[in-house]
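Re-running Aquaporin-like protein to confirm reproducibility after the cluster update. Everything else is unchanged from the original entry.
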Amino acid sequence: MSNHLGWALFLNSGIKNHLVATLGELIGTTMFLFFAFAGTVVANINSPAGEKLTTTGLTTGWNVNKLLFVAFSFGFRLFNPAVTLALLLTGAIGFVRALFLFLAQILGSIAASGLIVGLFPAAANVRTTLSQGLSIPKGLFIEAFLTAELVFTILMLAKEKHKATFIAPVGIGLALFIAELVGVYWTGGSLNPARSLGPSIVTWTWDRNHWIYWLGPALGSLVAVAFYALIKALEYELANPGQDSDSAAALDRERAVRMRQEVVRRRVMGAMGYDVGEMRSGGSGEFERLGRCEMGLVKDGVLYARDGGGGRDSLGGRRDSLGGREAASGVGGEKAGAYVAGHGRGGSRSGVYTAGGGSAPHVGPLGTAIRDSGESVR
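Result of re-run:
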């Protein structure tokens, strides 16, 4: 009984998860680099220069495509320390997991290089070096730029979850294929510190510019993460709402619930400089408590507030303390989708909305309040 209990505890522990991820990364990296190296060896056998580049690119790109399809069934595999760094910086994996994956990738590269040296002729050379006449800064930039392209593709297709996630390996494979076609002649198309380290260790042949294949991919990974963080901060999902829905006319229900409070508070209240807890009346100077009211649903890309204390609307929303109500159902004869500020008197501003003798601003996309005249309320 104790043995069964111990095994059950192990199966549900974090240690087991780290071991499975590390083992999968070790096997996956070994297979990925073995076939990539083997393709390079074959491409170098009495082939014209153009055919060498195409063969190397196809072997590397479609090799990772195949392996990622296999790996997606039991967890995404990285095969590349630069990708591991990107996922660590974006919070997709923790430091301990990243360390285990990094070690597995290095060991996998060494194992793949050893298999190539043992199976193929001694003349086989799969090390990465700069092309003759290419300066160090140019080589560094090429490695960084191509790695940034690859890592950003991975972040958008594999880390970001959407309806096309299941075919992410195709996009990642194509990105690597294109990068290899561009870079293999000039730098060897490494884009992967482990890919350059393994052959150098096995053959114990070190190029004086080996450091480029570490610094370049690291810089490229940082650039990709920075751009990814920028578009996430700008909420790129809202540029084309509903693109992953079955119907482009409506947002996904779960997504609407997540956006409901966060977007309304930050976009409408925070952008206007008001505290979430309190709001100043622009006309009378009085303070009106917002009471952290629940905002309404997202419909056709528009955020609607729920009921405002003068009665409940058809959405069944909660009440706030402004005393007004949201006329989504046409309550009180007001225009559907409008906010009514109950405390605004004589045209003075109440909270963030102008009463204006009972007229109410429309509610624009993304929670923006707009007057009847079209002027934005700030």
